[in-house]
Amino acid sequence: GIGWGSVPDEIDRFGVGATDTPARVERLAETLEVVRALWSGEPVEFAGRHHRVAGGRQRPRPRGDIPIVVGGAGPRTLALVARHATWWNCPIYAVDRLEELRRRAGDARVSVQEVVGLVVDESRRDAVASVTARRFGAMGPGVVVGTADEVVAHLRALRRRGVERVYTWFSDFADPATLAAFGDRVIAEL
């Protein structure tokens, strides 16, 4: 999985390079070209703005295709998805625009990010909803609060929209009891 970096301060903090959006997208494009060329097992010559490879060669060569997951929702990122990715990961903030954006992602399979506030005990629904809103409410439409049956219905609706994989964040930061209930009541049902 790869993206162009959504937190410019982190890119600067770790010395990755330019933090402006066009440069980050350009760096991702070059990275994808270099990585895919190296996976061929053949010597690679590449001279870009961000990467330089002189006779680099991946050894051992991968035995098969390595899937590439690219996350993002901008037009330049989606062009890279269409060109290079096996999977497109629709960010949590763009799930409501999935169908509109999907057309630009080429043949890439679709994954999404979702925050789940699992209501294990109905008497705690308000508390779960409150914690989820406080921690993740600004994340956008990829947030669901509900019982196992409600979460299953939500995930099935995503499947009908063409989503094949869901990266799940838990609003309680994956409390072991929540994970157990999710496995027993959601995953088992799906």
Structure description:
The structure is a single chain. Helix 6 packs across helix 7. Strands 3, 4, 5, 6 and 7 form a 5-stranded parallel β-sheet that branches. Strand 4, helix 4 (about 100) and strand 5 (about 110-120) form a beta-alpha-beta unit. This protein is an alpha/beta fold and about 190 residues long. It starts with 7 loop residues before the first helix and ends with a helix. The model has no long low-confidence stretch (mean pLDDT about 95). The protein is built from 7 helices and 7 strands.
Q: Estimate percent helicity.
A: 40-55%
Poorly predicted runs are none
- The overall pLDDT, averaged over residues, is 93
Strand content: 15-25%
- Please tell me what the overall shape is: elongated
Brief digest:
By secondary structure, the protein is α/β, with parallel strands linked by helices. The chain has helices spanning 8-13, 21-39, 75-84, 98-102, 125-136, 148-160, 176-187; strands at 44-47, 52-56, 69-71, 87-90, 109-118, 143-146, 163-170.
Chain-wise SSE layout:
Blueprint: H1 8-13, H2 21-39, E1 44-47, E2 52-56, E3 69-71, H3 75-84, E4 87-90, H4 98-102, E5 109-118, H5 125-136, E6 143-146, H6 148-160, E7 163-170, H7 176-187
Parallel strand pairs: 3-4, 4-5, 5-6, 5-7
Antiparallel strand pairs: 1-2
Helix pairs in contact: 2-3, 6-7
